[in-house]
Q: What sequence folds into this?
């Protein structure tokens, strides 16, 4: 038997492990109804071709900020297509795209341009982005995740994006900034603060019971029925609650526990697998 056929045929733990990754956006986000409703209310004017207020979103790692923005964005784009309203949400991870040039190029390329990520004058890239934005009637919402990583290198990109609506005839631009740093605004020039932070949404940490709800929801999709010992999810939730209510940590713990059980050819995921997962995640972080 082929080595991969043997591995796949013997794996009875996971149905879909990707459900436990940070990049997965579920159909329902437990314990974030208030933040979802607030964000949706602020963005709703886009469906009438009006400019939504700019938004700053704060909260520690693993409090559901990015997942909530992706969830609401997906729903907004779905409704806009039904209403035949051109509304686009463009997501930028500022840990990767961390200069004014790259932000402008990313937006331009998402709207049909073909700008290299280096090598041209920034003024030219800005003009190309502006042409792409204004090529038709639409609302574009630019999500700047980990916005503090961009701003620490200079706030020119934010300054220009918050002023760009005065230069556009057909389109409207709104910005959502997401930050783990509650002191983020201290890096900004006052002229940028005045135009950027029109609305603020704070995401509090999850408690152990809320983390348990999140893991139970994902576990139904991620694992085959009956493979988790009953104390696995409460244990993962309690450990992550100690880490400022970090849902990412909880999901990582549950996924790695399952992967360790799978590699040991175990039929069940146990508390011992969670303990091994804690050690593995900690050693991986040290090696990084």
A:
């Amino acid at each position: 038997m082929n080595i991969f056929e043997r591995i796949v045929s013997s794996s009875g733990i996971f149905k879909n492990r990707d459900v436990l990754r940070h990049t997965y956006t579920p159909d329902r986000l437990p314990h974030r109804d208030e933040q979802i409703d607030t964000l949706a209310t602020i963005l709703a004017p886009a469906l009438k071709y009006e400019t939504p207020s700019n938004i700053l979103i704060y909260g520690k790692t693993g409090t559901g900020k990015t997942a909530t923005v992706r969830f609401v964005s997906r729903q907004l784009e779905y409704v806009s297509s039904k209403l035949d309203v051109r509304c686009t949400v463009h997501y930028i991870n500022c840990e990767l795209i961390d200069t004014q040039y790259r932000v402008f190029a990313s937006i331009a390329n998402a709207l049909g341009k073909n700008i290299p990520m280096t090598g041209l004058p920034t003024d030219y890239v800005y003009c190309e982005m502006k042409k792409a934005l204004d090529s038709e009637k639409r609302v574009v919402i630019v999500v700047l995740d980990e916005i503090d990583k961009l701003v620490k290198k200079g706030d020119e990109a934010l300054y220009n994006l918050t002023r760009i609506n005065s230069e556009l005839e057909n389109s409207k631009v709104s910005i959502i900034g997401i930050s783990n740093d509650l002191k983020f605004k201290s890096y900004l020039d006052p002229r940028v603060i005045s135009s950027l932070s029109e609305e603020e949404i704070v995401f509090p940490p999850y408690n152990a019971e809320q983390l348990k709800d999140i893991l139970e929801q994902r576990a139904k999709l991620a694992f085959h029925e009956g493979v988790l010992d009953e104390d696995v999810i409460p244990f993962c939730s309690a450990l992550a609650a100690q880490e400022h209510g970090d849902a990412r940590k909880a999901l990582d713990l549950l996924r790695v526990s399952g992967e360790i059980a799978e590699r040991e050819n175990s039929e069940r995921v146990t508390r011992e697998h969670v303990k091994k997962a804690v050690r593995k995640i900690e050693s991986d972080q040290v090696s990084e």
